[in-house]
Amino acid sequence: MTDPAGMASDESALIAANAAFYAAFARRDADALDALWAEDVTVACIHPGWSPRIGREAVMESWRAIVANPGSPRIVPEEPVAVVLGAVGLVICYERLGNDTLVATNTFLRQNGAWRMVHHQASPLAEPRPRPVAAQPPQRRPGQVLH
Amino acid sequence: MTDPAGMASDESALIAANAAFYAAFARRDADALDALWAEDVTVACIHPGWSPRIGREAVMESWRAIVANPGSPRIVPEEPVAVVLGAVGLVICYERLGNDTLVATNTFLRQNGAWRMVHHQASPLAEPRPRPVAAQPPQRRPGQVLH
């Protein structure tokens, strides 16, 4: 990579795509969620405690069921960290659900200039969450881009 | 992608890299684990219940502690599914630890012709595991390659 400005832009766009995913979820907007997932590749999703859903149909079916369920929790993403690996980008973030915290990895593929989701995995956090952001070492700031 | 044979080979190599990761873990071989992780990019790891470890030093420190711990469980990978996205590959598999089952995503980056790990996330499985392999739909066979 010889384009630091372009790379920073890639990573900012990746963080924005990650935020758009959680915003669509917050709106319970299944169509917007659908539009965020990649086309023409195998996508997958591992919801907390679930076996993997593999393939677009199974993944979207799971999201439609979740957003249609009035008992589904609010999810607030926190401290996203973006890693760009060429045409693929990972965003690792915490997901705050009331008093519970999950840790998620959202994987994106660049398609037609946009970051589209190809995988989501969220896991429960069982250990105490690390210190607040201000006390974190430099590599763990919110929205930080790494390369 | 216009090279189906090359793609199948990519995916077979990806499944093999995933197997090599678990074999190194089974041998408690921290150096072999180290050699499997990518260089010169940000790598990350989310162990079950842990907060994310980000950066090669934090990731390898966690693996060295785990393999040095005689109480660490045996992990048997099962039903790996490979997805190749250009230079990045994902392997989703179950991890059997005695009577417990986790679900893991291992993410690899092709470096110098070899698949090297860039991310590992393992989550507990809380729902019943899907039907045995023989009863699975076609998209969920062990070692299957998807594209």
Strand neighbour order, sheet with most strands of chain A: 2-1-6-5-4-3-7
Number of strands of chain A: 7
Radius of gyration of chain A: 15 Å
By oligomeric state, this entry counts as: homodimer
Question: Could you describe the largest sheet of chain A, including whether it forms a barrel?
Answer: 7 strands, mixed
Overall pLDDT metric of chain A: 89
Structural class label of chain A: alpha/beta
How far apart, in Å, are the first and last alpha carbons of chain A? 9 Å
**Topology as H/E string of chain A?**
HHEEHEEEEE
Biggest interface and residues each = A-B, 39 and 39 residues
Give the helix proportion of chain A (percent range): 25-40%
Brief summary:
The structure is a homodimer of 147-residue chains. With 147 residues, chain A is α/β, with parallel strands linked by helices.
Descriptive report:
The structure is a homodimer of 147-residue chains. Chain A has 147 residues and is of the alpha/beta class. A 7-stranded mixed beta sheet of chain A has the order 2-1-6-5-4-3-7, covered by helices on one side. In chain A, helix 1 runs antiparallel to helix 2. The first copy, chain A, starts with a helix and ends with a strand. The relative contact order of chain A is 0.20. The interface between A and B is large, with 39 and 39 residues.
